[in-house]
Amino acid sequence: MKHQLDFYTDYGQFYIYDKDAPGDTSSDDFWTDDAYNEMLAEEDGILGISIKNDEGIVKCELELLESKSEIIDFSEYDHVVEASIIFKSGILQILDCPHSHVELEKTIENGEYRVRVYSKNLKTAYDENPEDFYKIEIWKEPYFNRVVLKQFVSIW
Hints:
Blueprint: E1 2-8, E2 13-18, H1 33-38, E3 40-43, E4 46-50, E5 57-64, E6 79-87, E7 91-95, E8 102-107, E9 111-120, E10 133-140, E11 147-150
Parallel strand pairs: 5-10
Antiparallel strand pairs: 1-5, 2-4, 2-7, 3-4, 6-9, 6-11, 7-8, 9-10
């Protein structure tokens, strides 16, 4: 099931959130140097997705998959990273920052999930009309550490 998202956020980030999870986005352990470089922050029940454009424009596609993503060719993407999240509430939310406005809410089965974020057109992020785009895939999979599958090297 695919969902198209088009919204505004601030501070270059938005969140994938397990409704009512205790994760703290202001924690020193959230946006670490590694998380910032890898464009994905982790806390209990919340993932922070980094965007590159200064306008706060999020153009995104979120897809809930039945099994692990089959995409292995990352040539059309600038950056690909994945991490795990545990859903305990049965409610997945996409939230803006800092207001935590709910951009999408979906009922899902509780459990451990893998989240892969594909970022593309990052080189346009500082253009007058940025075209950066974020594709997110989520599927059930046992918990595992964050891993970068393709690293974006900034041109700035």
